[in-house]
Specification:
Oligomer: single chain
Largest sheet: 4 strands, antiparallel
Structural class: mainly beta
Order of helices and strands: EEEEEEEEE
CATH class of one domain: Mainly Beta
CATH architecture of one domain: Beta Barrel
Radius of gyration: 15 Å
């Protein structure tokens, strides 16, 4: 996964491109789907499950499901501490300790 700085106008500063994390391990799976919690930790499908990566790019751990590919994910529940994630044929949910960033609610 690559990271970029974001300019004040919301566009990417392409010259700041850098490796954020290597999500390829010995087990099947490639990076796909991504969400961020309120502490800046990144949740992304990767080798062997859903990887949790801290803001510096350090791999904190993996939610192991046995599925080779996770296609997307989102936070939910009343406290935003349930991570829902999918593969091609399944839907999982797991309680986590840090809430995800809530989806913005449109203002009337």
């Amino acid at each position: 996964m690559r990271a970029f700085d974001v300019l004040p106008n919301g566009t990417l500063a392409l010259a700041t491109s850098r490796i954020f994390s290597h999500n390829l391990g010995e087990r099947p799976g490639i990076p796909d789907g991504m969400k961020v919690d309120i502490e800046g930790n990144v949740y992304v499908g990767g080798s062997g499950g859903v990887w949790i990566i801290d803001p510096s790019g350090k791999h904190l751990g993996t939610i192991d499901t046995g599925a080779p590919l996770h296609t997307n994910m989102c936070f939910g529940g009343g406290d935003w501490k349930t991570l829902f994630f999918t593969s091609w044929d399944r839907l999982w949910s797991v309680k986590i300790n840090v809430p995800g960033i809530p989806v913005p609610t449109p203002k009337p």
